[in-house]
Amino acid sequence: MRLRSPLIWFAVAAVLLPLTVGAEPPPVSLEEALRQSPTVVLGQVESMDRRGERQLFTLQVEHVARGELPDVITFDAEPPKGERPFIGLGTRMIAFLEPTTQEQPRFRLALGGAAALRVIRDKVHATFSVEEGPWLQLCGASPPDERRACRVPLDRFLSEAGLRPFTPSREAIFRVLQPPQCKPCNLEGQLHKSDAPDLKDCGTAPEQGTTPHILQCVRESLKGRTPFLVRVPRHDGVDLFALDTFVSDGTHFREISFYPSMGVGPRCSALVSQRRCESLVIRESDTPWLQCETPGKHEELCSQSRRIDALGPAEKVSRLSCDPEGRRGMWLCDVLPAGTRSGKHTPRHDGPDFICSTRSKRIFCREE
Question: In which domain of life is the source organism classified (predicted)?
Fold first, then answer.
């Protein structure tokens, strides 16, 4: 295939937007992506299903440029090990998809996750434009810290690439981020499964050191070989908080560690693991003051490694009444009842779209 426009060729033939953080992938041409992608769609990411290292994305399809698809599809970005896809909730993108051998999901991004382009709404012409990514230079060389906007109108891009034309005509929308969803994983739930009868709860030690009554409780329980538990908080790094619970049934010893957040957010990232100990030893001058002697391997008891983030349903921006937040493109808004008018700023009906999050009784919105 030969692209007729030098601008389009220069813009998209060099590299398609890399989706992973890390080493820059080798250049991918548009022709190569089209050869490997029987399906090409334009849409907005409405949910992300994090399953450990895997991340599945559900796309609200706005336009099928090649192939036949339903209005909503799910695909796998297949990031390299140890890296994360460079896709967020609300991202509008052109996805070049190839089939998988699985029933779910049926599709994955072609060419190792490199075959995608981010798309933004052109605020002047109320249309769409292809946007460069953080490593993709569409306008030639520029300083490393400078992000240059080099935009290609979507209708021109589709035409030059031999894909189905598309003209957006809908009113601009806003969508609100929903609370993440995950299965429960907490310390108390795991302690209730303990096989030790009549546990004596010695309490929770302060973050630094211990207290006389906690120390006495643990000493007496160890000496008398009676069942007990004690909680000892600790910090792994600046932000990662853990609560270690030492449990004994009088004969066997365990250290159960609870991480309420594994450093990826305040919700839906908890982990509870345990390791068995040959014995528990008190060392008041050390940190921690209660230690697991000859520990075994860590066993995962529960984990919120699967987390689903999603956007709420699309609503027309004409329902918003907003005040500027102080940063360009940021707004504090109220959602008005249908048909209500306000003297405050109301976003343009022809765009841009908004992605919003809840803040008290109002919503905090950013322009897309």
Answer: Bacteria
Mention every residue, 6+ apart, whose C-beta is less than 8 A from residue 142: 148
pTM to 2 decimals? 0.68
Compute the distance between CA of residue 275 and CA of residue 261 in angstroms, rounded to an integer: 19
The residues spanned by each domain of the chain are 6-169, 187-303, 315-367
CATH number of 6-169: 2.40.50
> CB of 245 within 8 A of CB of 273?
no
Cβ-in-10-Å burial (0-12, 13-18, 19+) of 9 comes to middle
* Cis amide linkage into residue 105, ω under 30° from 0: yes
Q: How many CA atoms lie within 13 Å of 283's alpha carbon, on the beta-carbon side?
A: 10
